[in-house]
Amino acid sequence: MTAPLLKAFSLEAIRQGKREAHRKAQPDVPWNDHIKEILVVVAAEFGLTYGDFVSVLGRMPTKMVGRARDEAILRAQERYGYSSTELGARFGLDHTTVLGALKRARKRREVRGT
User: Fold this and answer.
1) Number of domains in the chain
2) Which residues contact residue 5 at a Cβ distance below 8 angstroms, ignoring those fewer than 6 apart?
3) How far is CA 32 from CA 1, 10, 38, 61, 72, in A?
4) Range of the domain at 102
5) Residue 10 covered by a domain
6) Does residue 25 lie in a domain region?
7) 3-state class of 25 per DSSP?
8) Is residue 19 in a domain?
9) Which residues of 54-87 are buried (b: 16+ CB within 10 A; e: fewer)?
10) C-alpha span between 98 and 70 (Å, rounded)
11) CA 22 centroid distance within chain
12) Would residue 49 count as lying in a domain?
């Protein structure tokens, strides 16, 4: 049995792969009305407009938007039982980022006592 041949990748091919991975991380699952409802409520609670909130969800958010995003992810998971992978697809995030968001949101709730 011969060893498999390794395919040589150019730097440009690697960069293209990263671009493809980034495109796949964007929300490809449309938000259901119930997810949109959660986003509207959470945005209002954090003093954000829905449009501003949604426009930065999948990017590097400010602290306030990040906290609001974490809370929205937690509420969607609690209310509808989505897995971290499903939530990631809906919010344009990797499932490990979703797990971190859930952990942060739960910890904030413990501190607030709600």
Assistant:
1) 1
2) none
3) 51, 40, 10, 22, 14
4) 31-112
5) no
6) no
7) helix
8) no
9) beebbeeeeeebebbbbbbbbbbbeeeebebebb
10) 8
11) 12
12) yes
* H-assigned helices in the chain: 11-25, 33-45, 50-55, 63-80, 84-91, 95-112
The answer to whether the predicted template modeling score (pTM) of the entire model surpasses 0.70 is no
Interaxial angle between packed helices 33-45 and 63-80, expressed in degrees from 0 to 180 and rounded to the nearest 10: 140
Contact predicate 58/52, CB 8 Å: no
CATH code for the domain in which residue 60 is found: 1.10.1750.10
Q: What is the DSSP letter of 49?
A: -
Measured in whole angstroms, how far is the alpha carbon of residue 54 from the centre of its chain?
A: 11
If one counts every other C-beta atom within 10 angstroms of the C-beta of residue 92, the result is 16
In tens digits, what is the pLDDT along the chain, a chain of 114 residues? Answer: 444 444 444 555 555 554 454 444 444 445 677 888 898 999 899 888 888 777 766 666 678 888 899 999 999 999 989 899 989 888 888 899 999 999 999 999 998 876
Q: What single DSSP character describes residue 7?
A: P
